[in-house]
Amino acid sequence: MPRQRSGARNRDLTVNVIGGIAGGLLACFAMERFQRALTRVSRDIGGVPGAGSQQYRRPQSEPATFSAVDVLAEAATGRPLSGEYKAAAASAIHYAFGGALGAIYGAAAVRTPDITAWGGVPFGATVWIVADELGMPMAGLAMAPTQYPLKDHATTLASHLIFGAMTEAVRRAVATSLRR
Questions:
Q1: pTM of the predicted model as reported, rounded to 2 decimal places
Q2: What is the mean pLDDT of the chain?
């Protein structure tokens, strides 16, 4: 009997991780769409095309994902990536990060179902604080949060709340579908 329980647990973990990956990827797409919609309101609050929904932040002119592309390209080749490929590479980094976070979220949802409370919105807020507000500046990919205006924080928080809600909605739908 313990093997069946273990097998069921492993299957539940697998379907939730798959759902989390799908959720994280689709959530990145939703974030990009949201940032593009904000661009129609004002270029100052909107996203950079192909930049993984990262917005232009003043005084920094390039999104953190663009800075990450430069760091990775220089580490691999000794020189930054040319401009024509930078936006696509930045988007790939953002999607890879979102998919990885979704996988972790899916696994955590099995272990601690309470993590899915409020439809994933607290997860999105946590990603915003840990990755965007703290992680990027600590990694040298962005300036300190105090260097940016409040509107930048508000729009990136909104983007990440969408990320959390979308990740949870897709994770739940995929996991439910795969369990059948």
A1: 0.87
A2: 87
